[in-house]
Every structure is written in C-alpha cells, then in structure tokens.
Specification:
By secondary structure, the protein is of the alpha/beta class. 45% of the residues lie in helices and 17% in strands. A five-stranded parallel sheet has the order 2-1-3-4-5, with helices on both faces.
Length: 129
C-alpha cells in the first residue's frame, strides 16, 4: 500500500507515518498544496497513492480544497482506481463532516488518532487484510 499523509502537526504526522509505514511506502506533505503536488507527481509517474490521510485545517490550502483538487486530477488522469482518502481532524461539527464527505473523502477520523480505529478503516476500505 502506498500512502500519503497531509498533516501540518509534526506529532500527528509522525504517528500516521510510523503506523502506515508498516504496510508500505508512506510520503508526507505539510499542507494541502504539497499533498496535491505529490498526488499529481504520483499520477504522472503511474505510481498512484492507495491512501491519502488528509487533515482539514492546514496552511496554504485546506484539506477540503485539496481533496476536491485531488479528485479533479484523478478524473483528468483517468485513473482506474482513485485513492482512498481518510480525513483526520479535530473538527466534529456538521459543516466539517458534510464538507469532507461532499469533497468525496472515503472516511472521517477524529483526532487524536486511534490506530485501532485507523486499522479498522483501512480494512473496511479494502486496503489491508
């Protein structure tokens, strides 16, 4: 499984990267703009990400905008299988959840990240056994 973690908080970024590295390569992005750029490069090299973990509130480009742009880039590249996107955030309000779902994320996890819940989501999404 090839993963990308888009997270501006160093502690959360390290936790996710350490956990996901057990299942394959894991890249990091410090904000939404870096995440979109990483996805575009992956699409161009035909080494698409299987999973993107996306924080919602980040500098330069927030997670919802980044998700929308990632989905747009995947459509333009005519990928056969889009990346699974799990939102990882502290926000539990209806607007944040609805916005993320409308942006076409696949799952929504509230911080602090519980790795057991993350593993359960990865299994539900068919990314791990």
């Amino acid at each position: 499984m090839r993963s990308l973690v888009a997270e501006d908080d160093a502690t959360n970024r390290k936790l996710l990267q350490t956990f996901l590295s057990r299942y394959g390569g894991c890249d990091i992005a410090l904000d939404g703009k870096e995440a979109v750029n990483a996805v575009v490069l992956a699409l161009q090299s035909h080494q698409e990400y299987d999973l993107v973990c996306m924080d919602l509130r980040m500098p330069r480009m927030d997670g919802q905008d980044a998700i929308r742009e990632i989905r747009k880039q995947e459509t333009a590249a005519k990928v056969s299988k889009s990346a699974k996107i799990i939102v990882t955030t502290i926000h539990t309000d209806t607007n944040s959840i609805t916005g993320a779902l409308l942006s076409r994320c696949n799952a929504y996890l509230v911080k602090p990240i519980d790795t057991a819940k993350l593993k359960k989501e990865l299994k539900a999404l068919g990314l791990i056994q």
